[in-house]
Amino acid sequence: MPLSLDDLRKSTTANRKDKRRYVVPQLLENSEETSLCEDFCRYFAQIAQDGRTQKDFSEQYLTERATGDFKLARGLITAMLRYYSWESQTFSDKLAMAEVERLQEIGLSNPSTLRLALYDYVNQSPMSGFAGSTEWERADTLDLFAAGIGFEPDKVEELLWLDAEENAKLKLRRRKDGELFRVPDGAEVARHYNRLAIETLLYNSTEINFNLGQNLPVALMKRIGYFCKDLRIPYDLEYNSVGEIQLRLYGPAEAFGPPTKHGEKLARLAFIVLALSKKAISGEWLEGGEGESYEGPRTTILDEKPAKTTKKSSTKKGEKASPIRSAIASVVLRDKLYHFDLQNYAHTFARPEETEEIATEATAETPAIATPNAIRETKASYSVTSDFDSSVEARFYEEFSALEREGQTMGWQLEREPEAVAVPEENLLFIPDFGLRRGKRRVLLEIIGFWTPAYRARKLEKLEKLKRRGGFDLLLGVAQELKTDFKDAPFPLLFYKNSLKPTELLALLNRHYADLEERLSEAHKGLDRIGPELTAQGFIPETALYKLLGSYSKSELLNALQKTGLSNEENKTGLYIESYGFCATNYLVKATVELGKALQGAPNQKLAPEEVAASLQAANLKIDAGRIEALITRLPGFKVNRQSLFEVFVEKG
Questions:
Q1: Which of 617, 637, 595, 650 is CA-nearest to residue 539?
Q2: Residue 125 — φ and ψ, nearest 5°?
Q3: Strand locations in 140-244, DSSP E?
């Protein structure tokens, strides 16, 4: 938890140039302040070692040690409580194990159950809820109750309120790995206090703006977008007037749920962005060492040079520049807007090892970079619990992937957050949720959930800019609750209630982006490969015909065959047999001869379809064994006889 705004030591200034008010936190950075932190460490360690309770803890003494600065004293106490905590006492802290077990046998495992037992005892006759108004009557009641459970009255009275706040004892906390924190030193406490001070301002920010420059590593951009969505922080990626990429993180006013919860996530995300930027300087977590850079206006869609800036770089020769040029948080203090320059304090927000820990965690799933200036799908599987922004996206990915494995998506392949869309002249930059690829066609998919009205308005504005720019194929999956807001959306959309159905999306996709006419116009290109394959194999399976003719359904295949003239039975190339494939004339002749020979030597001149397939394969004919009946019905002089569901054979006829 960050500090209270009332406990934060800060000063405010006004900048004459930009007419802005700035807030500056007072951090602990000199030796005297570190020495004060050492005093606090010794005091806490002594309290914990002596086993003293919270009523023995003196905030006044610590305030005096801080020269009367109660804000500093309270802030340092908060920082110390990262390593220590006040823990309620239990029966085992005051009683022998045998006594604890005896109490547990009668259902008294903690002070709360002991108090309830006493209340029940007082509520019984003859007291009927009253222990008496005098001190001796109360003592008499407690004596009788204590005798009933086999303890002395003084001991029972002590045990009754053992879990009270004033009786809590100071103990070292446990880390996430289960081990106890070690006793901190003054420098560690000072660093943690500084981080809490910075967190406090971020926690109360209305928005945080990062200037990411014109040259941004694609993996860094990918991870920033991922964490914004993962932490449910509304954000915008856009360009400023000189072509620099801006990241804007919105505060509690733009979010649903408790503002305090959102403030915690906002502060955490700001630290993650700073940690990632430090990691990106080394390039070690980008594939290939240095990794590819995202140069503002240049993407796989656009090929424009980035706008020039008049600012000169302060980076020394041989030194890599940080992707973050500036980081300004807008903070409201007593109904006045102040700005906090986070970039000036980036060096204090964590120890190097803490920065490494944040960055390592944040980049653990960094995707591979396939091509320059593009963000591509990784082959690693996605985790439903951690790698998706919402359950809607996770379920859609799982269901679509299942259809894709079964070959039910008509050739469409799903990509996770495929590439950043950049339109600098429209001040637009965003990362879609999915991409759908088929052949040369790429369609982007954006799933829109229930955000605030202001955020939805900005989303619609971005979509309008994309439509105005042209050249983008996009589908929208929109929550049913937003139907009124998005009824006039500029791109095809599908409303969903609880989940986005892949089958419904595929239908919408094929209605708007099937590009059937374009593929039919190019179907003749498959003829150049069909001829040589027929000469070599004599037969092309129907599944291979789909690929050769750029078709994804039976109706499309029949149209392509008609377009190329291959469906005409009088063509000299060969014969198309539906559900089987395309057969050369000499292939059909040889199949007829070989089948006749096989039946001639068979008992009763009958063969099962699988026996026919084996005979034709033995004659070095390439066949589709699973669809052999479709071939047999087109060979002259033969028929398939079905006497029952389980008795099928081939004979002359």
A1: 617
A2: -70, 140
A3: 169-172, 205-211, 215-217, 235-239
Average pLDDT over residues 240-263: 76
Local structure of 243: helix, strand or coil: coil
Burial class (CB in 10 A: 0-12, 13-18, 19+), 90: middle
Q: Which residues contact 233 (CB under 8 A, 6 or more apart)?
A: 227, 249, 250, 255, 262, 265, 266, 269
The residue whose two tokens read 């109490």 is 103
Q: Which two tokens stand for residue 638?
A: 């033969």
Mean pLDDT of 418-425: 73
* Cα(281)–Cα(21) distance, integer angstroms: 31
pLDDT score recorded for residue 294? 40
Q: Is 71 helix (H, G, I), strand (E, B) or coil?
A: helix
> How many C-alpha atoms does 491 have within 13 Å on its Cβ side?
28
Structure tokens at 305: 């040079």
Given a contact cutoff of 8 angstroms between Cβ atoms, the answer to whether 367 and 219 are in contact is yes
Which of 389, 62, 398, 46 has its CA nearest to residue 229?
389
| Beta-bridge partners for 495 | 478
Distance set, CA 593 to CA 572, 630, 636 (Å) = 20, 17, 10
- β-strand partners of 577: 581
* DSSP element (H, E) containing 75: helix 70-80
**pLDDT, tens digit, 9 for 90 and up, residues 274-283:** 888 877 666 5
Q: For residues 336 and 67, give the distance between their C-alpha atoms in angstroms, rounded to a whole number.
A: 30
CA distance 9 to 568: 87
Q: Are 103 and 31 in contact (CB under 8 A)?
A: no
| pLDDT tens track for 599-643 | 998 888 899 999 999 999 999 999 998 899 999 999 999 999 988
The set of residues, in sequence order, having a beta carbon less than 8 Å from that of 78 and lying 6+ positions away, is 1, 3, 7, 193, 196
Each residue of 564-607: pLDDT tens digit? Answer: 888 777 677 788 998 899 999 899 999 999 999 999 988 888 99
Q: Which of 404, 384, 405, 381 is nearest to 394 (CA)?
A: 384
The angle subtended at Cα 205 by Cα 232 and Cα 192, nearest 5°, is 90
d(CA 271, CA 224): 11
pLDDT at 293 over 50: no
- Residue 24 in 3-state DSSP? strand
More confident residue, 69 or 288: 69
Going by C-alpha positions, the residue among 279, 299, 288 that lies closest to residue 220 is 279
Cα distance between residue 625 and residue 613, in whole Å: 6
Mean per-residue pLDDT of the chain = 81
Closest CA to 547 of 514, 581, 574, 571: 581
- Close Cβ partners of 208 (under 8 Å, ≥ 6 residues apart): 202, 248, 249, 251, 266, 270, 327, 328, 329, 330, 342
* DSSP alpha helix (H) spans, 479-601: 483-486, 502-513, 516-521, 527-537, 542-548, 554-564, 585-600
CA pair distance 201, 24, nearest whole angstrom: 9
> How many whole angstroms separate alpha carbon 302 and alpha carbon 422?
7
